[in-house]
Design a protein that fits this description.
Oligomer: single chain
Structural class: mainly alpha
Main location: membrane
Protein name: Anoctamin-like protein
Number of strands: 8
InterPro entries: Anoctamin (IPR007632), Anoctamin_TM (IPR049452)
Number of domains: 3
Distance between the termini: 61 Å
Keywords: Membrane, Transmembrane, Transmembrane helix
Largest sheet: 4 strands, antiparallel
Radius of gyration: 29 Å
Strand content: 5-15%
Helix content: 55-70%
Shape: globular
Subcellular location: Membrane
């Protein structure tokens, strides 16, 4: 019989606290001892481990404790009749289980942990004096114990722990499994990491699998000598990859909805605990007095909410205009200067070095733009942090769009030098993707090694001796020293998936918008993505702490960016074909040129037609939803009739007595 994860009492969360120097007789007031006793009183299973310099408190929550927390949180879960109802511990069998057989998903379990950990408050009649070494402080009535210990830097960090059994299993059948180049255990990834990371890898796997078709076409076009027929082969290749991209985006929507249905995820999920841990408020910034004043005139209330709504939209429009103007005024001259230098320099070695220096230099502009974007987003009014994160994605992608493509547009539009254009594309693809993979996989290990070295050095200084080898024997301590899976930009709103999705979107734009100039780019991208699946998996399982789970039902704003890049690709590739056809620049409306212009309009029309032709939801998902809704309606109707019938009988009985 398979044992569910909740029934195994696996340690899933760890707190890092300093080693206690208090004497045993003073342990009753020691804040770490008080914290441990509070956790035990709540119902946690606690294990304390001594590390080299810190102490680690591992927590495991039995199923009954998680159920109580879910009930207090009024958590809604999917039932067997398809309705999302408030969880009740006494009606466990009514709720649908996860793909791995557990009752709660990782995201739901972490919400329960978060509620239980931060829900420990002082319920005494007076404040409690706590000690940490020589320092004393007051734990006030109604104050969260963990919050005050965090403010005093006593609780240094709270992070999710890897489950070693499941981690090693995923390493074997996912990260180190090279036999199935695009296959992945998506359900296991969802159960272990949560919906957001699972959706990213499902998207990456499908994208890579579909990439094999244009990669094969690109190889054929590169290897076969078409001669005078090349001007005909390129438009055929262009039409094929545009149709491929349109179909891919539509069929991904179908797969997305199928995964959400299989995982029983509600589209209207609540606040994300990962956001709350970072201290970001996810609520809409509406004045409290508008909600509390029940006697306000309805007309005035409506006007007030409309004013808030439209002022918020105007503020967002203003901020977007600031970002766009900043990109044009500050970054555009730098990008054009680089492109011009690349055009006039003759030495390939100097060009390569210039490209490397350029890629490092633009990081400064990106950091500056990210800081400005975050300040602007903090002034905007959004319903949730998901909307705030989407706004950050659009703004940052605008910066990277300018960085990545303006130089290439310069070579294509002004000089029409296809030899230089191909050279630039090859260098950008090789340098950016190889450099990104090297940095992604080497930086976490370098950070981890440096932190271990730093801990050993400090420990030797405390001992006053440089002799002896210091070993890290605890798995919790090793995970604590690993870097967090966080975004390089906008850490408050995004995790490490931001960088992975950004890399994927930039690659898609590079190979799609200049497909006619360099068809072989699809083969490079396919090889890179096959490697990316395994390296990203290895990164999550071995190089980083276990990420905080984040709720999601789609890949968010990134899908809109992919749609935008498809439309851009239609325009740019048609322009490239026009310049290939009209090399002398006569711009006469000849049959070939007219055909290219007509083709552009036809492809744009097909782009919007296919979005209507291919349904976003598979038929079985829709049929199951309708079936469950009908069953739920029937059950509610019968229950309502019984209630009405019982009420009438009681009323008649009362009348007879009277």
């Amino acid at each position: 019989m398979k044992v569910h994860p909740e029934e195994q009492n696996v340690f899933e969360v760890c707190l890092v606290v300093p080693k206690s120097k208090a004497k045993k007789e003073d342990a009753t007031c020691d804040c770490v001892e008080v914290l441990e006793n509070a956790f035990l009183k709540v119902g946690f299973i606690v294990e304390r481990i001594d590390g080299v310099t810190d102490e680690f408190m591992k927590l495991a929550a039995p199923l009954k404790l998680l159920g109580k927390a879910a009930a207090r949180l009024e958590m809604k879960k999917r039932t067997h009749i398809g309705m999302d109802l408030l969880f009740g511990l006494d009606e466990v069998d009514a709720f649908v289980r996860q793909p791995d057989g557990s009752l709660f998903s990782w995201c739901e379990r972490f919400r329960c942990y978060h509620h239980l950990i931060y829900g420990i408050v002082n319920e005494n009649q007076s404040a409690v004096t706590l000690k940490c070494d020589e320092e004393e402080f007051q734990w006030k009535v109604g104050e969260s114990l963990v919050r005050i210990l965090e403010s005093k830097k006593i609780v240094k960090q709270i992070f999710p722990l890897h489950d070693e059994i499941r981690r090693k299993k995923l390493l074997g059948n996912w990260a180190l499994n090279w036999w199935d180049i695009t296959g992945q255990p998506i359900d296991e990834i969802y159960s272990y990491f949560g919906a957001k990371i699972a959706l990213y890898f499902a998207f990456l796997g499908m994208y890579t699998r579909w990439m094999l078709f244009p990669a094969a076409l690109g190889l054929i076009l590169h290897l076969v000598e078409f001669g005078s027929m090349r001007l005909l082969a390129l438009p055929i290749f262009f039409i094929s990859i545009i149709l491929w991209a349109i179909m891919f985006s539509q069929f991904w929507r179908r797969k997305n909805s199928a995964l959400i249905a299989r995982w029983q995820i509600n589209y209207t999920f609540g606040g994300d605990p990962a956001y709350r841990l970072s201290g970001v408020d996810s609520s809409l910034q509406i004045p409290v007095e508008l909600i509390e004043d029940q006697e306000m005139d309805k007309r005035k209330e409506k006007e007030a909410f409309q004013r808030i709504e439209w002022f918020g939209r105007l503020r967002r429009f203003r901020n977007d205009a600031i970002v766009i103007l900043s990109i044009i005024c500050l970054q555009l001259p730098f990008e054009l200067a680089y492109a011009h230098c690349y055009e006039v320099i003759q030495s390939d070695v100097i060009k390569f070095g210039l490209t490397v220096l350029y890629l490092f230099a633009i990081q400064y502009f990106t950091r500056l733009g990210a800081k400005m974007s975050m300040k602007l987003i903090n002034c905007e009014n959004y319903e949730s942090n998901e909307k705030r994160a989407d706004s950050l994605v659009y703004k940052i992608f605008g910066l990277y769009f300018m960085q990545s493509y303006i130089g290439i547009f310069y070579h294509a539009l002004l000089h029409r030098n296809f030899a230089t254009l191909r050279q630039v594309l090859i260098q950008r693809l090789l340098i950016s993707e190889v450099l990104e993979n090297l940095l992604e996989n080497s930086l976490p290990y370098i950070k981890y090694s440096y932190r271990k070295y730093k801990v050993r050095r400090n420990k030797r200084r405390e001992k006053g001796s440089s002799q002896g080898k210091i070993q890290f024997t605890s798995r919790a301590e090793k995970e604590y020293l690993k870097p967090s899976y966080s975004a390089s930009i906008g850490v408050e709103l995004e995790d490490g998936l931001f960088d992975d999705c950004l890399e994927l979107a930039l690659q898609f734009g590079m190979i799609m918008m200049f497909a006619c100039a360099f068809p072989l780019a699809f083969a490079f991208a396919a090889l890179n993505n096959i490697t990316e699946i395994r390296t990203d998996a290895l990164k999550l399982l071995a190089m980083y702490k276990r990420p905080f789970p984040r709720a999601a039902t789609t890949i968010g704003a990134w899908l809109n960016i992919f749609q935008f890049l498809i439309v851009m690709s239609i325009c740019t590739n048609c322009a490239l074909l026009v310049w290939l056809y009209d090399q002398e620049g006569k711009w006469k409306i000849e049959p070939g040129l007219a055909a290219i212009l007509v083709m552009e309009h036809v492809l744009l029309l097909l782009k919007f037609c296919f979005s209507r032709l291919v349904p976003e939801e598979p038929a079985w998902v829709k049929a199951n939803r309708v079936k469950k809704a009908t069953q739920a309606q029937d059950i509610c109707s019968k229950q309502l009739l019984r209630t009405i019938s019982g009420g009438e009988k009681a009323l008649n009985y009362v009348k007879k007595i009277e």
